[in-house]
Amino acid sequence: MQSLSQILPAGPANLPISQIETLLLPRLADISLKLIGAILLWFVGRWVIGFINRALLRGLLSRAMDATLRTWITSIVTIGLNIFLIIAILNIFGIETTSLAALVAAGGLAIGAAWSGLLSNFAAGVFLILFKPFRVGDVVAVAGISGTVVEVTMFATTLNTADNVRTTIGNNAVSTSIIQNFSANPYRAVDLRVQLAASIAPDEAKAVARAALSGIANILADPSPVTEILEFAEAGPRLVVRPFCHNDHYWQVAYEAQMAIATAFVDAGFPQPSVSLASKPN
């Protein structure tokens, strides 16, 4: 069997195999060493980044920093360290990082134009971090969704609704909507509307409603519950019954107050309000 040196004759257009080997082997060895070095640098760098993130997270937790701000800081540090790691790996192969930076900048403009919605969510996330209209754990209503704030990331806000549905909303939709924070104040009102029959004396009904509320746990004494006539309807006076409680007890107070008032009205012998039905045209 003929060797490669016998098949390819030496000449001006062809180099001897020995000379090709002399030229290629050092390059292959150099590339192999660089590849091994890049792989080692990648794994060591990732370990160092993980170590720095864990140390940073422990430091932020010891300072009792807001969970949202803590997530942002660790995310930004992770992204920055990974960028430096990639640049260091490229330097091993002798790639000019200055030209690469210009290429990345040009690509960033193109991506920014294509992902304008994503960038608007990022900008809105910065707004939420700086002005803090709510924090993790607060009960809020944003973009038409009510729930408990689970997480605020760079691009989206996650809520758990009252029926235990995990809901993720883009930060731009959050920042441009009306934000209601039910946890910002130390207590909130539970608004109940009670329709009375026309034959019931409002003062008697108010007294029965107040007595019914007195047996419910977690209703605040200060401010005291409000029981007043809200308006006059066709069926009779309509009361507003408004006990106050901490946000954590809102639904417990709301459910128990309605049951207690309904039971008290039945025990007092109050008649049901009459409801007039409009006649249908023939």
UniProtKB/TrEMBL annotation:
Homoheptamer. Belongs to the MscS (TC 1.A.23) family. It comes from Candidatus Phycosocius bacilliformis. It is a multi-pass membrane protein. Mechanosensitive channel that participates in the regulation of osmotic pressure changes within the cell, opening in response to stretch forces in the membrane lipid bilayer, without the need for other proteins. Contributes to normal resistance to hypoosmotic shock. Forms an ion channel of 1.0 nanosiemens conductance with a slight preference for anions. The keyword Hydrolase does not apply. Residues 118-183 form the Mechanosensitive ion channel MscS domain. Keywords: Cell inner membrane, Cell membrane, Ion channel, Ion transport, Membrane, Transmembrane, Transmembrane helix, Transport. The chain crosses the membrane at residues 31-52, 72-94, 100-131. It is found in: Cell inner membrane; Cell membrane. This is Small-conductance mechanosensitive channel. The keyword Magnesium does not apply. One of its GO terms (molecular function) is mechanosensitive monoatomic ion channel activity. One of its GO terms (cellular component) is plasma membrane. It holds the Pfam family MS_channel_2nd.
